Amino acid sequence: MILEAKFGQHLPLNRQSETFAREGIEIDVSTMADWVGACTATLAPLTALIEAHVMAAARIHGDDTTVPVLAKGKTVTGRVWTYVRDDQPFGGPEPPAAVFYYSRDRKGEHPNKHLAGYAGILQADAYAGFNDLYHPGRKPGPVTEAGCWAHGRRKLFDLAKLARAPLATEAVGRIDAIFDVERSINGLPSEQRLVLRQTHVAPLVAELETWMRAARGKMSRHAEVAKAMDYMLKRWNTFSRFLDDGRICLSNNAAERALRGVALGRKAWLFAGSDRGGDRAAAMYSLIITAKLNDVDPRAWLADVLRRIAGHPASRLHELLPWKWGQQAAKLAA
Length: 334
What we know:
Blueprint lengths: L1 H6 L5 H10 L6 H14 L1 H12 L3 E13 L2 E12 L11 E7 L5 H6 L6 E3 L20 E3 L2 H14 L3 H19 L5 H27 L7 H10 L2 H4 L13 H6 L1 H10 L5 H19 L4 H11 L13 H12 L1
Parallel strand pairs: 1-4, 4-5
Antiparallel strand pairs: 1-2, 2-3
């Protein structure tokens, strides 16, 4: 209950302690924090299995967000990173999952460490810290970069809405037409998506590029619309890569959705108490968000797994993963 309330419902431990006190139950915040640490350690084998499952994907989504961290009487800006496996858009049979990591800063060394053994497709924004991952000589192989159209659209949409810029409005309309077609092929097998994209989407992308380059050529490089267009035009190969691979999505929304809980928690509990607290939070988010992605009640799952994991055979720990647990629960309820 305490774990899910803190990391699933974003209720800080001090508020939970106050709630228990009103019911006549005195639980010190430090005691609850110790319990969180103990549970995180107990569940670490499942966190590792989720991490391995995510990193075995042919394509993952990656993103990060800020988190204030208490340090010597002040707060510094740490980061929470996520990598999400979601094969459902291309009809993949494997269950979705998300792994989270914490770091004190946003240096490129962190994604290099997180993805040290990965060599698939990474859907992400244009963060320069990812660049080493795309290097042709990288071992075990280069990561393939795939751009996020939602991110590129957002820059233009803001200008269309706030500045009422006609060229930005035109660009958003053309991009929305591409999204409309993509919605109709969501969930289809990758091979079928590829055929439909070549037929229906590729002409729209080609027209957008031609129009955008012509419009951009008439603008000053200092114009805000020009800067928004440059974000896409300078990375056109990464933005158009989805046309040649049915597994690639048009956007990185899966990672942004996974980080939404961190953003809500940031407003509720204000800051992480330490780097260790940041690591614990990342581990718990890995467990709770993965449960939610598989339509499993995190509270029920965590309560049951914490009761069983100590006596569960190590060779069968995979049975306790959210998607396996959910299947078992459904059978028992039938």
